Amino acid sequence: DIVLSIFCEGWPNCAREWITRERLWPDIYSVEKITQSGFHLVPKSSAACDFRLSYSCAETMLIRTLSPLQHKVMRAFKAVVKYHQNIWNLPVKGIISSYYLKTIAFWHFEKTSMEFWTKETLVHHLVTLLHELAEALRIQNLPMYFMPKVNLLQEVDDPAVMLNLLENISQLSLNFSAMSEAINTASIGASIFVNSDNDIANRVNILDAKEKMVAYIINSLTSNFPEDTM
Question: What is the pTM of this model?
Answer without folding.
Answer: 0.82
